[in-house]
Amino acid sequence: MSTSDGWLAAALVPLLALVPVLWRIAYGSPGDRLIGQNLTSLLAGLVLLLAAQGFHRTSYNDVALVVSVLGPTGTLIYARFLDVLPDSRLVRWTALVGVPATVLPLCVATGPGRAMAKLLLIGVLLIAGSVVTSGRGAREGVTA
Amino acid sequence: MTDVLIVVALLLVAGAATAAVLNRDPMRQALVLSFLGLALALLFTFLQAPDVALSQLAVGSAVTPLMILLTVRKVRRRPGSGDGVDKPAGRER
What we know:
The structure holds 2 protein chains of 2 kinds. By secondary structure, chain A is mainly alpha-helical. Chain A has one domain (5-143). Chain A has helices at 5-27, 30-54, 61-82, 89-110, 114-134, 139-143. Chain A is globular, with a radius of gyration of 15 Å. Chain B has helices at 2-22, 26-46, 50-77, 86-92. In chain B, 83% of the residues lie in helices and 0% in strands. Chain B has 4 helices and no strands. The radius of gyration of chain B is 16 Å and the shape is elongated. By secondary structure, chain B is mainly α. The interface between A and B is large, with 42 and 37 residues. Chain B: This is DUF4040 domain-containing protein. Chain B: It holds the Pfam family MbhD. Chain B: The chain crosses the membrane at residues 6-23, 30-47, 53-72. Chain B: It is found in: Cell membrane.
């Protein structure tokens, strides 16, 4: 099985970033936990994208696609139950900086085609989901 | 390099599972459990089993925590059980 270590080493960065997130989820206030859950799905999506490239299996991107759909949905459901949906600059900036920094090199490495369109779709979904669940505008939906 | 990823993912799974056990409030356990589901999905992907990871994502990170949340809500809503919240959690273990 041929793997490329560069991409896998890059996948290690968001993976290690999950460790402090786990700490916050386990011991933080309810708002912190929700931010942690949001950040977890975002970082997991990035790890999966990078790992798919590292293993030379573009079909692994399906898992990242499912994460990018389920993650923000789950956050909104938890927000409904816990009655908090905190503003989170951390999530928003991680999404706005981290996702393009991951997806654009992957697109360059993949080359044009179906796989690249899928990568871009996953990136857009990740950014959109994070912006919706971390912004002020989402707050009205919670109290309803 | 794959081994490093697998080891880190395994440590995350172990940490998340321990945190889920140590948390006493079911509401909080649900969130830790969804983290555990995501960590397991990552581990399965690193072990080159993306189909298992997909089902783990659906079950572990979405359905199970949602069922716990719904159950806790139902139990809390029942009249005359002011502090009955902790009992179902104790029964699960």
